[in-house]
Amino acid sequence: MNNRVYKYFFYEFFSYFIVVLFAISAIIWTIQAVNFLDLVTEDGHAFKVYFFYSILILPKVITKLIPITFLIALIITITKMDKDNELIVLWTSGLNKINLVNLIFRISLIITVLQIIFACVISPETLNYSRNLIKNSQLDFIPSLLKERRFNDTVKDLTIFVNKKNSDGSFDHIFIEDNGNVLTKVANVNLKETSVIFAKSGYIADDDKNLFLFNGSIQKRNNLGKVSVIKFEKTIINLSKLTTKTATAPKIQETSTFDLIMCLSKNISELQNCNLSNQYQKNLKIEINKRFGTAFYIPTIALIICFLLSSRKDKKIYTYNKYIFGFISFAILTGAEITVRYSGNSLNHSLTYYLTPIILLPITYLLLLRTFKYENLN
After folding, report:
1. pLDDT of 249-284, one tens digit each?
2. Bridge partners of 179?
3. Is pLDDT above 90 for 91?
4. Which of 75-79, 145-149, 236-240, 246-250 has the lowest mean pLDDT?
5. How far apart are CA 168 and CA 174, in angstroms?
6. CA–CA dist 154, 163 (Å, integer)
7. pLDDT digit string (tens) for 304-315?
8. Residue 297 pLDDT > 80, yes or no?
């Protein structure tokens, strides 16, 4: 019988866990995906790039939500079974509460492993891939670079300004400043040149790859100080190979856990995105603690929520237990999220961050044993 009860509780919990996790993730992901529309409207990337980039940030969202989702799902599971009098049936049939506590603890260990996998492996890899996706993508939506009366510097070393956009799609008074030989059609690739282009009018071809300019001039100045001016009635600039100025080096949260550990141990001779500055090493420790440390708090909040299994309904405070223990657990998760930001200050801070849940575990378990012993339900 016990095995069937455990399986029932296990399936009930995970059904709520999956539903809550993906429901909250979908809401947060949708909000962030809307914010990422700037990749198309401002930066000129294709919708395909935007779509895949939005999908790739989902593991990061899930990683952040796993602990709080575990808390919510566990409270829902226990309170539902209590409301439906299923727990009373289990206690009167002789089920030992500590056995159910042990089951919940084992479930929390599964969620802990899941959290570590997402935080240490899946999330960094997908974030790094998303950065490479943006870095290596071409600007397929070129018209977004030409905004009326706005200086657009999405492309590194290139600034574009148009004074007016007409109803037929053409532009009046176009200004382009090329500080890095970005537009090879009008720059001498043998010398570092700054090119400034003025044109009275222009339009983008139907293929969104070529910019036609009319009645203007090209002013070029190389690193030797030589200035030359070329006037034109018509010229064509190919914009199909432009790329965004997104940073090429991955951020700390986008770096693999193995590389972070190697950097922290100072084995960095050939390691990308690693240096020995104090601030960087501090941020490095914080990131590593975030990936590993948060997961250690999940079993602790699991045991705290187990106090909801208490049968003392004669107490007036009983109806508020789910709020009390839920608030305590939420406060612990919030405290962990806050204190991890200071865990990189010193070794003592890091030890405090890791030892807190480890110390709370046996204390909470002993309190559960004491509580259920006095209920005489063993």
Report:
1. 567 888 888 888 888 776 554 556 677 777 878 888
2. none
3. no
4. 246-250
5. 16
6. 18
7. 999 888 765 545
8. yes
pTM for the model: 0.74
Residues recorded for the chain = 378
> Tokens 């339900």, residue?
377
Could you give the CA distance from residue 74 to residue 301 in angstroms, rounded to a whole number? 10
pLDDT of residue 319: 66
